[in-house]
Amino acid sequence: MPVHITSRRNGFFAEIEGVDIARGVDTSALREIEKALDCYAVLLFRGQSLDQAQHIAFGRQLGPLEVSLLAARDGRDLSIAKEISDISNVEPDGTVTAVGDRRRMTALGNRLWHTDSSFMKVPAKYSLLYGRNVPKRGGNTEFADMRAAYDALSKTMKGRLTNLVVDHSIVHSRAVIGFAYNEKELAARPPAEQRLVRFLPGSGRMTLYLASHASSIRGMPVPEGRMLLMELTEHAVQRRFVHSHRWQPGDLVVWDNRATMHRSTASDPNEIRDLHRVTVTDYASSLDQPLE
Ligand code: OGA
Ligand code: MN
User: Fold this and answer.
1) Has residue 263 got a pLDDT over 80?
2) Which of 62, 106, 41 has the alpha carbon at shortest distance from 253?
C-alpha cells in the first residue's frame, strides 16, 4: 500500500493519500503514518468510509485506546462503542440537541484551545476524529503547532519554563464557560499534573504542553501562574502557528496531542455536526517521560 504525503504548510499538517483505512492498514503504511505524525503532527485522510469497528481498529494499530469519558454519561446513545467519543449534536432519535441541553457542553468546551485528556494522569497521545456529517458552513477544527510555538520563544523564556509543572482539570475549563459539574461528576474528575515543556522522542523536538484545562503552575501563586499560561496560550495560537481544517464528510483527521492544541469553531446550532473520536492513550504521565 504506497502512501503519498503532501504538506501544504511548512512542516505542519499533511494530507495522506493512497490509504483505505476500512480495508486495514499494513505495517509499512502504518510506519509511514507514524513517521508523518512525528513530522507533521496533524494528518488528514480524505474520503474514508469507516464504521465504528474499523475506526477503532485503526486506532488500536496506533496504540492502546482510552475509554470515552462520555461513555458514562446519562442518556448516552448505546449504539456507540465505549472507545468512541461521540462529538455530535445528534440525539439517539436523530434530532439535533437543543440549545441549553447539558450535552452541548462537551461541544462548547471544545471551542476552547485544548489538547485531549491532559487532565488525566496519562493523557492522550493521538486523537482520530472522523467526520460523519458536517455543517455546510463553520464548524472547522483548528490546530496550533505547539512545537513551532515553543521554538519561537526567547531563550530566556524557554529556560524559565523548562521544569514547570502545571495543574490540569476539566472542571477548570468547564468553569471558564460557566458550566458546573455535580458532586458525583466532580469526584470522577480529579486534576492531574503535567509538564509545561515536553520532549517528543519521535522528532527530537520540544513542545509547549498547554490546554484550556491548565489552571495553575506548581510553586506559583495561582494568578501569577494563570497569567503566564494565558500569555503562552495567546502566543501559541497566533495565526502563523495555526491550521484551520474545513471538514468534508469522510475526513479522518489524526493528530498528536503532545505536539498540538486544537479547538472547534462555531457552526449553526440547528445544523447537524456529527463526528466520532477514537483516542490513543500515552504510555505514561508527561511527568514520567524524559525531557531529552
Ligand atoms: C475533540 C475535539 C473538536 C471539534 O474531538 O477532541 O476537540 O472540532 N473536537 O469537534
Ligand atoms: Mn479535543
Assistant:
1) yes
2) 41
